[in-house]
């Protein structure tokens, strides 16, 4: 029953606020896409007959970059496929360096002067990405797409006959790193056996938040599919840590062959990022397939090493991230919600954000937030110390006109009676006049405590008050809120008291009993009853007059 009442109060209070518009359902998006497929194949009948240790290396690559209007579209890109014949000779010692830069715009730049490079792989946040595949037997500079979730590991693979040599180094977003390396490798030459090209389709679809996501991968005739749930977290997008939902799946398949086989590992991950007011700023979709396939028939042996990845990064035009100062967590109908905010009142969340306002909580900066998810709304307050608390909307039990005396001066006021045991509350009061200048006090132990001026505001003709509640409040008219923390005392009966309470500094004042001309709630009720009786009597009189005619 309490939940029903709370929901009704939110419904009643929502029209007061200027609701923040949600993002368009037909946004303009920028799509960045890369796809690399590489198969490193050695041995076989031909190599056995020729007594050769040559390798067939097949690389398929796709690069796409375009701005489109609308979501859920099938785009078309061109792929290029090259088959390299790699030949190897004697071992040589190579000394050189690797220099890699990871940029906040999801790009990677790499230079190395060590030959035989065939693959560059990024590992970050549990996901593998083949960000480049090709052949180079001298120095090379590579510029490619890569998603790094803050930190990760870079793996460079060098061809070495029937084997592959790995070199790793740690990487970090917005950082350039250099590593000296020394390798003993078979000297390599290569020729291009064949090249082909064609067209493939790229699907763009912004995931639906807080819903399962169907994942499906088909690699060389082997399929894997899975319906993945989501994880609520924070992740980096264009250099900023944002609220995010992550869908991740993993599975295995069989890499079959005529005379043998192997195992393929599939992994797929989608991360959706949220910006100002919970709008979608973009998402990253990554697929990786890797594995081996081998067989042997007597002295004839064959092995193949597979590495495949696609990376799709979608940015929503016009959407911006929040550079957060504090982070909160709450729940709406059992769904975990991440909230990122700053002292300027900017808020991002995995839920929709319909309203924000900077408040003071125990002399600490905080933001009052109205979040919305799946037809449920909820007020919370998030503080700079990363504390999140629920805020209960309450309806005053009674509002009456009165007068208060502050520093020997009388002011017109409204007395507001509130009954709530919640940690924080939010209520609204209709103002006596438009364009009113008001100061809000609460009654604590017989003394008036002035609220911090950031904890009340006017929206659409209503005074909205946020507080860690008292039972009695006074809305005082034509008095500017204090801009400097002060404490004053006023004699009450035969004693003098001084009060100070957070989130604002106290001003102790004495209440003046309302004069006889003040309209209380009971007087108003009597007046309304009298008016109703008068209307009824007039109606009866008119009926009698009409009947006589």
Report on this structure.
This protein is mainly beta and 549 residues long. The protein folds into three domains: 28-316, no CATH class; 326-393, no CATH class; 398-481, no CATH class. 8% of the residues lie in helices and 62% in strands. It has helices at residues 2-13, 45-50, 521-548, and strands spanning 28-43, 55-69, 73-102, 107-112, 117-124, 127-136, 140-145, 151-160, 163-172, 175-204, 213-219, 222-228, 230-237, 240-256, 260-274, 280-297, 300-316, 326-332, 335-341, 347-349, 352-361, 364-373, 376-383, 388-393, 398-406, 409-417, 425-430, 438-444, 447-450, 456-459, 462-467, 472-477, 491-492, 495-496, 510-512. The strands form seven sheets. Strands 1, 2, 3, 4, 7, 10, 13, 14, 15, 16 and 17 form an eleven-stranded antiparallel β-sheet that branches. Strands 21-22-23-24-27-31-30 form a seven-stranded mixed β-sheet. The protein has a six-stranded antiparallel β-sheet with strand order 29-28-32-26-25-35, with no helix packed on it. The chain crosses the membrane at residues 526-546.
Topology at a glance:
Elements: H1 2-13, E1 28-43, H2 45-50, E2 55-69, E3 73-102, E4 107-112, E5 117-124, E6 127-136, E7 140-145, E8 151-160, E9 163-172, E10 175-204, E11 213-219, E12 222-228, E13 230-237, E14 240-256, E15 260-274, E16 280-297, E17 300-316, E18 326-332, E19 335-341, E20 347-349, E21 352-361, E22 364-373, E23 376-383, E24 388-393, E25 398-406, E26 409-417, E27 425-430, E28 438-444, E29 447-450, E30 456-459, E31 462-467, E32 472-477, E33 491-492, E34 495-496, E35 510-512, H3 521-548
